[in-house]
Structure formats: C-alpha cells, structure tokens
Amino acid sequence: MGIEGPFWRAIAVFRIASLGYAAILLLQSGGYAHPVTGWIVLGVMAVWTAAATYAYSVEALRGWPLLTLDLLLSAACLLSTVYVQGPQATANTMPVTATWVAAPVLAWGVYSGRRGGGVAAAVMSVADLWLRGVRGFDLAAVPVNGAVLLFLAGIVIGHVARLAKQAEERMQRAIEIEAAGRERERLARGIHDSVLQVLALVQRRGAEIGGEAADLGRLAGEQEAVLRELIRSGPRPDRSLRSRRRFVPARRAPADRADLGDALRRYGSAQVTVATPADPVPLSPRAVDELTAAVGNALDNVRRHCGEHARAWILVESEPDRVIVTVRDDGPGIPEGRLAEAAADGRLGVSQSIRGRVADLGGSVTILSSSDGTEIEMSVPF
C-alpha cells in the first residue's frame, strides 16, 4: 500500500467514528419528523462505511469510479436530511449524516492532492447549501463553517498526502541509487580481478614483443581504458517512480551548459588516462569547445615530441569559482627557451592554440617542465 496506507486507514477510522457520532445525534434528537427514515439512512451509511473501508484498502479498487461513487452516495445521504428532519429543523441543525460527509473529501485529497480535495469539498458544500436553501433558510444568514472546514480538510490533507508521496519517491530513488552503486562495485571488483588485468597484461607484453603484437597490445589498452570508464560512470536509476526498473545515463549538465568531463573523456586511450569528477562540470558550450581544443593540441604535442608510446594524463578539477584542467606527460620535457623560439619561428601551437584559447576565456595557463615530463595547467573561471 506504500506511504498512502496510513492515510486510508485514518480515513476508515474517521468514517467509523463519524458514523457513531451520527447515531448518537439520531438517538438524542427527538424532533425528527421521520426517525425511521433516519435509521434507514444510517444503515446505508454503515453498509457503505464497511464497503468503502475494504475497497480503499485494495489498491486495485482505488480509482475514480470508487471515488465518484463515494462522493455521490455521501451527497445523497446528506440531501436525505430534507425528509428525515422535516420542516421544524433550524439553520443550525446538524444534518443526519453529521461529519460523515467529510470522508469522501479526505479520500479525494489523498488520492489526487489539493485539487481533488478542493473539488470534492466544493461538491459537498454546494449540496449542503442547496439543502439549506430548499428548507427555506436565508442563505445569507446560514453559517458556512461546515463548508470552510470541508475546504480546509480537503486541501490540507491533499497537500500533506502529495508531500508524503514525493518523499516516498525520493526515498525509493535513494534506495535504487545505493543498490546500483553496490552492484557496480561488485561488478567492478570482478572485472578488475579478471578482464582488466588480462587486458593490461596483453598491452604490456605486446609492447615488449613489438610488431603486430604491439598493435594488439595497443588495442587491448584502448579497450581497457573504455572498460574502466564504463565501470567508473555506470548507469543510474531513472528519476521517474513509474520507471523503477529502467536505468538511464548519469546526471547531465543543464540544457544551456555542456559537460567538460564528457567532452574530455573521448581522449581516453591506452596512452591517455582521463580523470574527471563524478558529477558533471558544466560550462558554456564555447568554453567546453575551447578547452577541449586546447587539450587536444597539448596531446598532439605529446605525440609529436615524445613519441607515439608516451603516456599522458588529463585531470579535471572543479573548484567553487573555477575549473582546472591539467595535462601531464612522461616525456623528456621542454628545453629551456624552446617555447619562445617556436613562437618566434611562427609555430604558435602553445602560444595561440593553448594560451590564446584559455586567455580568451578569461583564464590562465601555467607550464612546468622537467626531465620527468611536462605539465600544462589551464585554469578557467566559471
């Protein structure tokens, strides 16, 4: 029955208590013109209380047909007050149904929220005012406390029920995400102990043997990188409660933003390792394009100056006010004065394709080089 279960049980208790209250009023009031008819109406209310209590407890039966029947039957019992009490009733006389007519208003609120509760309250209020008008009372002098309470009950209960359903959906999503994470970790352990180690071994031995084996090793390394990225990102549950068993890709950046991590992960290969935050790194599409091009140019320099088998690492860090992208390689480093010499000779790969792109985004570039390799740090504000 879910989170709605306590609401339906509370409505059942309210129906039974209101039925008892109506019976006490009928016993105490000796001025009814047709008391026998009043007891017949009370019997109908008792039968419907039992039937509605059972019907609302079965999820398959809960729906608009049951809610409509509940509302119409309650309104009919309310309108029977015209005949039961007779002409001697006053404007302040409690209808024969007493508070029992509020039950369908509560049911509509639980099932369809504030609007449903308000519609049911409006129907019952119109029936009550029509009843008092038929009995000849001046509607301007008729108390409207009952109608106000019905509206308050329907809207408040509907709002609370809707909040409870949303809380249940969020809890279900949290459970699904936790379960998906545990399953992903279990699969990652198994894959790491078998497939990834084999691919790494093939890559290493292929590079040692050379020739065609080196090509097989390179392909194995590329597949290892792809598989590691697949394990890292993994699927996440759909946010829709109706699709609990479907899985969709991880959370995306806003529509007017692009995810820098997604753009840079395509550079991952046997020689290039890409590390990005688990959550998206949203930047403007232009910023993502420029940074991606700058990183691509840095990797081109690694291959051109360090060889095809040189290793490179791309690290993306997201700070509160800026994004830092670092490209590091294990090459011999850049000789002192080489960048200035290249710029003077018209080779503008670093000065324009990297520094120029980042400067246009309002960022800065820091290059550190030694015999152990070169590190290019690109910092761009959000």
From TrEMBL:
<protein>
    <submittedName>
        <fullName>Histidine kinase</fullName>
    </submittedName>
</protein>
<dbReference type="GO" id="GO:0016301">
    <property type="term" value="F:kinase activity"/>
</dbReference>
<dbReference type="InterPro" id="IPR036890">
    <property type="entry name" value="HATPase_C_sf"/>
</dbReference>
<dbReference type="Pfam" id="PF19354">
    <property type="entry name" value="DUF5931"/>
</dbReference>
<feature type="domain" description="DUF5931">
    <location>
        <begin position="1"/>
        <end position="169"/>
    </location>
</feature>
<dbReference type="GO" id="GO:0000160">
    <property type="term" value="P:phosphorelay signal transduction system"/>
</dbReference>
<feature type="transmembrane region" description="Helical">
    <location>
        <begin position="63"/>
        <end position="84"/>
    </location>
</feature>
<keyword id="KW-0418">Kinase</keyword>
<feature type="transmembrane region" description="Helical">
    <location>
        <begin position="139"/>
        <end position="161"/>
    </location>
</feature>
<feature type="transmembrane region" description="Helical">
    <location>
        <begin position="6"/>
        <end position="27"/>
    </location>
</feature>
<dbReference type="Pfam" id="PF02518">
    <property type="entry name" value="HATPase_c"/>
</dbReference>
<keyword id="KW-0812">Transmembrane</keyword>
<dbReference type="InterPro" id="IPR045975">
    <property type="entry name" value="DUF5931"/>
</dbReference>
<keyword id="KW-0902">Two-component regulatory system</keyword>
<keyword id="KW-1133">Transmembrane helix</keyword>
<feature type="transmembrane region" description="Helical">
    <location>
        <begin position="39"/>
        <end position="57"/>
    </location>
</feature>
<keyword id="KW-0808">Transferase</keyword>
<feature type="domain" description="Histidine kinase/HSP90-like ATPase">
    <location>
        <begin position="289"/>
        <end position="381"/>
    </location>
</feature>
<dbReference type="InterPro" id="IPR003594">
    <property type="entry name" value="HATPase_dom"/>
</dbReference>
<keyword id="KW-0472">Membrane</keyword>
<dbReference type="InterPro" id="IPR050482">
    <property type="entry name" value="Sensor_HK_TwoCompSys"/>
</dbReference>
